[in-house]
Fold:
Amino acid sequence: MKSFYYYLSALVLATFLVVSCKPQATAPKATTDTDITGKTWKLTELYGKPVHAKNPKGNPYFKLDMKEMRYQGNAGCNGLGGTFEIKPEVMRIKFNQGMSTMMACEDLDIENQFTKAILAADNYSVNGNTLTLNKAKMAPLAKFVLE
Structure:
């Protein structure tokens, strides 16, 4: 009887060692909702103040294209675009000076501030459907919502 328990214990120990040494299947990575690319981001706030465009259809927005590494959008009246660099794992972003159309517009103040804000941004944060562009640890430059 003693040898039976000895062999049973040895079998349990061997089974435990085999199971614990076996490579474990890794769970697929959960998709994060911090991916800001391929989405249209509509401006809601600039330098801490809500944005009220005179023409609601001319509300500033931008979109990031990871395939071409380009951004495109509208500053309110004029279109804008250029290249960008992003490090999503540390939420860093840099918009490079690009091109813009040069139409005469009624309200260039929002447009100029919007352009300055995206060019000054060096990092971002995402909270639900809200994207915030930031410069270092200062107050947010601009806030956007998913369109």
About this structure: The first helix runs from residue 2 to 21. The CA atoms of residues 37 and 64 lie 5 Å apart. Confidence is low (pLDDT under 50) at residues 25-31. The chain has two helices and ten strands.
